[in-house]
Amino acid sequence: MAALVWLLIPLLGVLVAVLWARWAARARTNADGASLAGYERFRTAMQPAEHPPLTITKGETDETDAEPV
């Protein structure tokens, strides 16, 4: 009976190796779609605007500059 146990050890090792090899060689999906879409949105947001930003000339005030009443 002890000899059968010693024969099962290498058999279990081979079984574990086969399972690991199948898992390691599985077909993986390429999930770059969402990442590339996010990068494209970032690039679009970082593009300079076609119109220059509005500037406040001297003498004009902005609502944020007004003193509270």
TrEMBL record:
Annotated stretches, region: Disordered: 50-69
The protein, known as: Uncharacterized protein
Biological source species: Actinacidiphila epipremni
